[in-house]
């Protein structure tokens, strides 16, 4: 078997790399692409190519001039070939109607664009860089979050956890963010704002044959945005100050790192089902499977769609808590007893037609599960009981 490269080996193993292969572009090439994208937007909005003519909008006339020059430059054609999905550069040439009293150079000057000595398309100086456009579009695409009161307590809790050291804000060059981590329940800092991934669509394949999802992101300034997970991932990598908020640390029993004498015991995992069952679909954000495993969580859930205990459907990992020096079986029993009032009566058939009733699915929000782990860690769980009405732990009477 021929030796595989690192990327090919990852692909064989089904591991998706976090970033796209970088394409090195000069600032001038970036501006050419940005200028061409302006033309593409015009064609999309108006259903036709930009036209010359004194009766045309000043920007349409600029795009017409720019398109003529892009067509005349072999270097520009080569650079834009992969982006020209509408075959704009090879469409019928525009009929140039010389503006009365305003030639192309004067037109460009009127718009603040001064051509160089060679009147070269590569000298267009005032095209907004693509990175600036993307940043502006991301902000513009945000809208007011009408139900922000629902999420405000989550942001307050995260802020308190950061201040107490119960969570950490990790720099992205120290811990990569994969698409799998951009999922409901996770927090990030991007653009100086705390961002919460509140919801996600099912995975789909883009026109470039790549898997993606659309996620609803809530920001702590009471705005929200619906973006592709890959777009959000890129926004994180473009922001040098971006951070990923770690999962809640529930004390030394569930810490991120072990002491020298500690023995790894396993992981508490919290899963969310992708089942199409009507009840699960209606309450997907609240239905969680909670278990304890001694093997990697990815291995535990690898065959979920064929396992009745996973409702014969794929799942997504919502949270993980590492265990040290803990009896896994006893801990799992304790977790299930504490959440017993919220246990769901779900069933699924196995491959032999026998009905199986999983015992690890609960109707409880992630916030309640986080609280449960914390109270188990500090020993206070015996003083509390789960209140299904308010979906939280309250003092036991």
Q: How many domains make up the 3D coordinates?
A: 3
Helix content: 25-40%
Structural class: alpha+beta
Count of beta strands: 17
Shape: elongated
Q: Output the helix-strand order.
A: HHHHHHEHEEEEEEEHEEHEHEHEEEHEE
Helices, by number, come to 12
Strand order of the largest sheet: 1-8-7-4-3-9-2
Rg (C-alpha, Å): 27 Å
Largest sheet: 7 strands, antiparallel
What's the N-to-C terminus distance? Answer: 67 Å
Strand % is 15-25%
Low-confidence stretches: 13-22, 94-102, 110-126
What is the residue-averaged pLDDT? 75
Can you characterise this structure?
By secondary structure, this protein is α+β, with helices and mostly antiparallel strands. It has 3 domains: 27-128, no CATH class; 132-245, no CATH class; 261-395, no CATH class. 32% of the residues lie in helices and 20% in strands. It has helices spanning 6-12, 27-46, 58-72, 74-80, 104-110, 130-140, 148-164, 229-238, 278-282, 297-300, 328-338, 366-378, and strands at residues 143-144, 169-171, 187-190, 193-200, 204-205, 211-212, 214-219, 223-228, 243-245, 264-273, 287-293, 315-324, 348-349, 355-356, 361-363, 384-387, 392-395. A hairpin with a 3-residue loop joins strand 7 and strand 8. The chain starts with 5 loop residues before the first helix and ends with a strand.
